[in-house]
Amino acid sequence: MRLQFKTSNQTFGLKCFRLLLAFAVLTVVWGCSGQYGTLKSSPEVTNFFVQNDYKPDYAYYYSGRENVPTAIIGIKPNYQLVPDFWTKIPPNPEALKKLMQRIYQYNHHIPYGYDMLEPSGQKVGILFSKHRRVAIRLEAHNKVQVLIHEPPSGWK
Fold it and tell me: For the CA atoms of 41, 110, 131, 90, what is the dihedral angle to 10 degrees?
């Protein structure tokens, strides 16, 4: 593969390479501290979101734009999300339902539900997303960081 340079703009390939390199470095650096959780696919979680159910004790967040969310998570009450890439959803069923309707509008892939688990298998929360590349990092004091790798637009 040959990279080409332009005087004013870098090529799309170089931008993608840099993005992937940055993600790889972030993953390595991030992996040096904290523990990592896992995702477990769950038809029950999928049905929970599809049927617009609501657990009032969970804290809900979405990633992406409000009019085109790419993922929705619910965090159990004994955990606290580090909200770097997430926006809190107001604590009412209608706000969650509105975002659920929007998650289907522009997605080319059907979202699916997952349980987010600690290394011990204890449930941290739930995730509904079309993305399957998700890192769940558990920090001190029950803080949880969730990072979704979303390829750049146009990337197949």
Answer: -90
